[in-house]
Amino acid sequence: MCDLIPAEMYEVGHPFLEPCCGNGNFLAEILRRKLDRCSDLEQAKAAVADIYGIDIQADNVAESKARMQKIVSERFPGLDVSEILDRNIICGDSLKIMAEWAK
Fold this sequence. Notes:
By secondary structure, the protein is mostly helical. The chain is built from five helices and three strands, in the order βααβααβα.
């Protein structure tokens, strides 16, 4: 599925929203592709900040965040992006949340 997205969409500055992120399968692959284009910590932080996810189950949200932090730590040791992940990967009903955003 991720191969169907134009490669330039993985550049930093192009946001992604996964409204039913589950345990982060798509988020993890999107993050890997974005980090492949990053050469420093600031770019890596910006890449993480481009990714948003919502899931109705708290355990899925926790697993998504943990997976994403692990990917970042493997590529950029010592970089803690937990604050960004806490802000961008949230637990909730995406239909209700997006309805609120539309107002």
